Amino acid sequence: MSVSIAATEASRSTIIKSLLSREGPKTINQLYVALHNSFPDNFNGMSRHKFKRVYLKNLKEFKHIKIKVHRDPELLEKLRNDPDSRVTPTDKEAWMVEVADSLARKYLTGDVDLGVNHKEILDKINSERAKSKDFWEGKTNVPHDWRAVLKAAGEKTSL
């Protein structure tokens, strides 16, 4: 499999969404194994628990991914034959992770900038929001519209 993402530059959540948009829905364990195999530098040392509780939970809360239950017998049989899926012969359903429809096209066409560091964006937003908070707490007399300041500077106001 050829991977065209500069894995060291992209954030983990961006890598997850990109992989799901290219390869389609996967069980949580299939996704975890695929990420470890495709991007060992970014995901080595990350436990399955942290992957589920931090990354998948946050992506689901931001509505970037969907968790769907599949009961199709043909799909279940295919998943039972895949050792990475962890679907047992007695399972009647499989929980699959897929990228949100609104983002799937964006990640497939490559419209997303994979080199963007989301931490830098969030740090800029948080620093401007702190200035706005100072006004409301009475630490300064000058009102500060953090969103207008970021827009005027040509910066992003959200991820």
Properties at a glance:
159 residues, mainly alpha, Arc Repressor Mutant, subunit A, 2 domains, three-stranded antiparallel sheet, 8 helices, 3 strands, elongated, disordered N terminus
Task: Walk me through the structure.
By secondary structure, the protein is mainly α. The protein has two domains: 12-109, Arc Repressor Mutant, subunit A (Orthogonal Bundle), CATH 1.10.10; 118-152, no CATH class. The protein has eight helices and three strands, in the order αβαααβαβααα. It has helices at 12-23, 28-38, 40-43, 48-61, 73-81, 101-109, 118-136, 146-152; strands at residues 26-27, 65-70, 94-99. A three-stranded antiparallel beta sheet has the order 1-3-2, sandwiched between helices. The longest helix has 19 residues, at 118-136. The radius of gyration is 20 Å and the shape is elongated. The protein starts with 11 loop residues before the first helix and ends in a 7-residue tail after the last helix. Residues 1-9 have low confidence and may be disordered.
Distance between the termini: 29 Å
Order of helices and strands: HEHHHEHEHHH
Sheet/helix structural class: mainly alpha
CATH architecture of the largest domain: Orthogonal Bundle
Count of runs of 4 or more consecutive helical residues: 8
Number of strands: 3
Count of all domains: 2
Highest CATH level, the class of the largest domain: Mainly Alpha
CATH topology description of the largest domain: Arc Repressor Mutant, subunit A
